[in-house]
Amino acid sequence: MKTKSTLEYALIGLLNQRAQSGYDLRKTFTTTAMSNYSDSPGSIYPALRRLEARGWIEAEAPPSGQETDPRKRQVFRLTNSGKAALVAWIEQPIQLQDMASQLAELMLRFAFMDGNVPRTTTLRFLEDFEQALGSHIAKLRVQFNDLSAKYPLHTGTLAFQSGIESMEAQTAWARQARARLLENSI
Fold first, then answer.
1. 102, HSE (Cβ side, Cα atoms, 13 Å)
2. How far apart are CA 5 and CA 16, in angstroms?
3. CA atoms of 140 and 161, how far apart (whole Å)
4. Is 157 exposed, middle or buried (CB count within 10 Å of its CB: 0-12, 13-18, 19+)?
5. For 65-122, what is each residue's pLDDT tens digit?
6. Domain-by-domain residue ranges, the chain?
């Protein structure tokens, strides 16, 4: 079976919140901060079919009398095995290589933590996130210093600086989020 995609995890995370149709899920992707996921029927419906084939979601039976209505939206809900897959994905350890290309996926995992994992898991995630991002930033700073010595006002150097500063802002956010969660769990 095909490798699981971040889109599939986004879908099961949303279906964990409530049963929804493919159309409802598409609307979420176009009207929220999740707009980086494709709202294309050519992406969402095949992903829903893969999730259904895996047994992670199932279609709810249509209300009585609407079984043959061709325009009736099919509503999907998360199964117990889908919930287990969601939790396993959320609980994956953070890898240093995630910092380079998986920040959006890490934030998606964080977004689905409440109600799915213990608060201690969320706090550990934020601590690991901050540490891994700090290590990644340190490596980037070495590269940036070399590059800026050669090309101090080059647009590529300035773009590199922007990326580092964005990651530093995310590190500060993780520290603050962890402090807020700790403060409210006492």
1. 16
2. 17
3. 9
4. middle
5. 555 555 678 999 999 999 999 999 999 999 989 998 899 999 999 999 999 999 999 9
6. 6-90, 110-184
Can you read off the two tokens belonging to residue 36?
């980086």
How many angstroms separate the CA atoms of 51 and 86, rounded? 12
Q: What is the DSSP letter of 40?
A: -
Amino acid occupying residue 41: P
How far apart, in whole angstroms, are the C-alpha atoms of residue 144 and residue 164?
9
As given in the structure block, the two tokens for residue 9 are 């995890």
Rounded Cα distance, 58 and 113, in Å? 22
pTM of the predicted model, to two decimals?
0.87
Asked: is 6-90 a CATH 3.55.10.10 domain? The reply is: no
Question: Do residues 31 and 129 touch, judged by C-beta distance below 8 A?
Answer: no
Where does residue 65 rank: exposed (0-12), middle (13-18), buried (19+ CB within 10 A)? exposed
Distance CA(140)–CA(17), nearest Å, equals 38
DSSP 8-class letter at 32: S
Q: Is residue 137 within 8 Å of residue 167, measured between CB atoms?
A: yes
Residue 78, beta-bridge partner list: 57
